[in-house]
Amino acid sequence: MSDHKQFYLEIKKIKPPAKQRRQYEAINYEKLATLATELELNKQSYNYIQLENQLKDLIYKSKAIKTKILNLPRNDWINKEVNSEIDNRNALWVEVKKNKDDDNLKIEFQAKSSYVSKFIQNTKNNYYYKEFTKCYHKPKRMWNLINNLANNKIKQACAPSKLSVDSKYITDPKEICEIFNKYFSTIGPMLANKINNTSYDNLSYILPKINLQTDRDLSRLEPCTISEIIQIIHNLDSHCSVGIDDRLKYSRTSNETVLLASLMQCTDSI
Question: Which domain of life is it from (predicted)?
Fold first, then answer.
């Protein structure tokens, strides 16, 4: 038998751990479209470099700092609407406790509580349904989602905390990103220059044999049309990486009409 006595500790109140928050830059695409419209890009003549610089300036003016609450994977379905409904229910419960004899208030609280419970369940079901639908015919993505839900932990940044470059240690995350960008943007040409191209002097067998004198379609360039530019924009890959605000596809479609005339002028002026 043990000679240790058991101790019982009762905690009346405990402060839950604060949720992690992360700040990020996001583009207000409505503001971007408004600024582009006010600038009247369609009425100005640009080449590509001028148009690019103008768009960069508009994007810079449309940026805003936002804060994202990092929920656990199992709680990522919680959104502002859910929190708002819970707050309304809790506020009604406070009124019920203050007016214990008010039967109508009790009935209203019971109805509100039932509605909030169903709303939470439906929101949760819809969220998981959409998440698993995105994994259709993608088993790797499916298992990643299942593992994230099973572990129920927030993913930490996998970027290195420091990097040694030219005998110097760099700890600034932005500088580390720039170093990686510079490396991967120059590694291709650097490796290509190391290839011995003495056996590739004659490239005639690679190029298709086309008689340009008889092919009128290749001997002249017709002015592009707005419909052609719209088709090119719509053919852009919508499955590429997006930012934390998940607004890439919306930005492409909401601002295309503002830029169509400018893009057509740039293309026809070549």
Answer: Eukaryota
Boundary residue ending a domain (134, 153, 172): 153
By residue range, what is the domain housing residue 28?
14-71+221-270
Under 8 Å between Cβ of 46 and 262 = yes
Question: Is residue 209 a part of any domain in this protein?
Answer: no
CB 256 within 8 A of CB 233: yes
Q: What is the number of structural domains in the chain?
A: 2
C-alpha distance across the termini of the chain, in Å: 93
Condensed to tens digits (0 to 9), the pLDDT of residues 69-112 reads 777 777 888 888 998 999 999 999 999 998 888 888 999 999 99
H or E stretch at 21: strand 20-27
Q: Is the pTM of this model over 0.70?
A: no
- Residue 200, in any domain of the structure: no
Coil, helix or strand at residue 149: helix
Tens digits of per-residue pLDDT, 175-213?
888 888 888 888 988 888 887 766 555 555 555 555 545
C-alpha angle 268-61-68 in degrees, rounded to nearest 5: 120
